[in-house]
User: What shape does this take?
Amino acid sequence: MTNRWKLVDQLKGATRLAVEATHSITSLVETMHHTIGGGPALVGQPLGAVTKLLTAPTYGAIRGVTGMVGCGLERVASECEPFLSTPGAERGVFLAALNGVLGDYLVETNNPLAIEMRLCHNGRPLRLEREALEASFPQGGRPLILLHGSSLDEGSWLRKNHDHGVALAAELGLIPIYLRYNSGLHISQNGLAFAILLERLHEAWPGPMEDILFVGHSMGGLIARSACLAAEAKGIPWRQKLRALVTLGTPHHGAPMERLGNWVDTLLGISRYSAPLAQLGKIRSAGVTDLRYGNVLDSHWQDRDRFARGGDPRTAVRLPAGVACFAVAASRSLDTSRPLAGDGIVPVASALGQHGNPEFDLAFAADQQWVAMGTSHLGLLSSRAVHEQIHAWLKPILRLSESR
Assistant: This one.
């Protein structure tokens, strides 16, 4: 989408989303009503036709009134446009969460609430033109690209008055650039889009761009890996400049929470009475279902029912060659004498790329993986210990690059 973001457009988008949601819930309730009121399936639901005939006017009226209300709210939003103030960070948090859950649907329906992928610096999107970049970065430099997690945005990197990007940039002479993206889309779709967007930055960069470094939190680490694969497949030049990839709490082999959601869908579908409710579970976006096993390629999800039960559909994918790759996991536990609990969302083994099948194990070097004890998934963003560990990993890489 290229239209200018306006609060009124987003209010209209929210109105449309609410109307569509009401219609969907109405259909869900109507289906359950017909299923229960139609009588036993064993004898062919003898009351089904009568139930539909009697309830049709009621459900039709609900849909009609909802549609009229939606049109009225859109008109009110248009008339209030001159009085709407510039939206702040709260809007960004709301949009990020909404896109995480429904982002693919927002794109499919051309809803203005869908987030457009951008590269940002100092809280503002960058214009990827040489003149604009020279004004922002007259000395050029080495970009540190930070990729946020699911249902978050670039503002999530600032947590408890700490931002890994700002701190590392100040200490290591880097330029922090933050990716903003719609986390409801498939990871491989975002990976390709990021690979193309980063090449635009690379082409317009003031002076030679000798080094690129990635730090990805949660889903952001998967998108970074997916972008590398896309760049390699298409021969995109920036890939040769990537020196380091650091992943923080990234579900390289998936997250149990999404696998649990998939089981709930299956259990609800067993009974014809509860089957309509299974549709509620299928609200989850493509980005969320990709987290079940950590999909990073189109082939991991194409031509598959993403809500169907089944095993891991992935083919083995290695870490990007020629790149120093590091993994940070978090454990809420402080007791190292027992098997480590995860961070509340991602298990330690998944965050470290470990897998029972050696073919899938990402094989991070022993000194290039680390566990932040007593830390939650979001706590990785504010942990000073995590910052110190990233700093210790990146500093010698940058020194080596400078000596070339």
Remarks:
- Residues 1-5, 33-48, 72-87, 259-278 have pLDDT under 50 and may be disordered.
